[in-house]
Specification:
Shape: globular
Structural class: alpha+beta
Distance between the termini: 85 Å
Low-confidence stretches: 1-24
Radius of gyration: 25 Å
Strand content: 25-35%
Helix content: 10-25%
Length: 147
Amino acid sequence: MTGRFRNAVAGLALFGAAAFAWPALALDPAPQPVVVTPLASTNVTAAGQPIVLPQKDARVIASQFEIAPGATLPVHKHPHARYAYVQAGNLRVINAETGQSTDYKPGDFIVEMIGLWHQGTNIGTDMVRLLVIDQVEGNEPNTILKQ
């Protein structure tokens, strides 16, 4: 048997084995190694503003926030895009300019308002834990506190 013929026969045997195994894999109830669960898809912020990304010298900042029960963040705004994923707790975000509030719970994804004064409050009895990602230009701050 030549090398080329032997490789062809081996390839066909492997293909045949895979063809018979495929139905068994399709019925396998074991968890799959990768599961993708979409969390959000939007082109506007929580306030309905279009998302505008930094135009130059883009920088990404990732942070974890922990907010104690009953704690309220100071009134602040973000000059650029900020995203938050609620990992634990119950958070209320209040638009300080309109008074409108939105409550978030674990599993919620927040596209924060840009350039609008707002604040967050832990309205539950458990710690609020947020994964926060900012996109800023250069060395600009990701948060501006109201004086």
